[in-house]
Design brief:
Blueprint (H helix, E strand, L loop, with lengths): L6 H12 L17 E7 L12 E4 L3 E7 L1 H8 L7 E3 L8 E7 L9 H15 L3 E15 L7 E2 L10 E2 L2 E8 H12 L3 E3 L6 E6 L19 H13 L2 E16 L7
Parallel strand pairs: 4-12, 6-10
Antiparallel strand pairs: 1-5, 2-3, 3-5, 6-12, 7-11, 8-9, 9-11
Helix pairs in contact: 1-4, 2-3
Length: 262
Amino acid sequence: MIVKVDFARTALIAVASAAVVFGQAQTVAPRRVFEVASVKANKSGPPSGTWTSPLAFLPGGRFTATNVTLVDVITQVYITRRIQMQGGPDWIDSERFDIVAKADAADGEVSQAQRLQMVQALLEDRFKLVYHRETKDVPVLALVGKLPAAFQESKEGEPASVPGDRGKFTFRHWPINGLVNLTSNLLHTPVVDGTGIRGYYDFSLDPMQFADTGAGGTPGPAPSYADLFETALREQLGLRLEKRKAPLEIMVIDHASRPTQN
């Protein structure tokens, strides 16, 4: 059985959406802002190839986001997922931008606790982003299971990355909540962590291993990539998905405007 799917695009979109700024502290502190910021439209289209994070915090208080949608940035700096966002104009998922910003050196080095707050302030200023949060009890899937034998503990300080080819993932320095987010994005449904696994790990996942045989090799419609991914979670990692009902925080976009370019 042959699966007809754009492996690279499916994987890239899911990974990019799953990639959050892991472990960032949400310390309440006076809100710092960038001294200067530039926002320009990017007409080159969605990126292709091996995934790399489009957001970068650089030395000297610099921040860049290349070829990103507004949703791309929101999901990372407000620590949420697209599946948990509602509202907003259609263009926030399609129109792309390049953002370059720099902090005032006179205010000292930018701390990790300040980074996300500074980008949030930039979005609220330049994109006029207004939102509120609601908590609702909704049906979810819970990723459950013990620490997989295939998980190898990552080296301290190793950067997070997900190189892959034709739908196969090779995770480096990846936490369980990153895998949960990726699963949610691929299945297009809310997924929560029911494993309790902590730490960062290196591991691989190859859903395409099951593409030729499908479920038990029986004839029928070709499985979707999401089906193959769920099979790989179970067969390669020993993790499974259970139906539950749980409170889920929803980020509601009340307003967003296209930024004035400069």
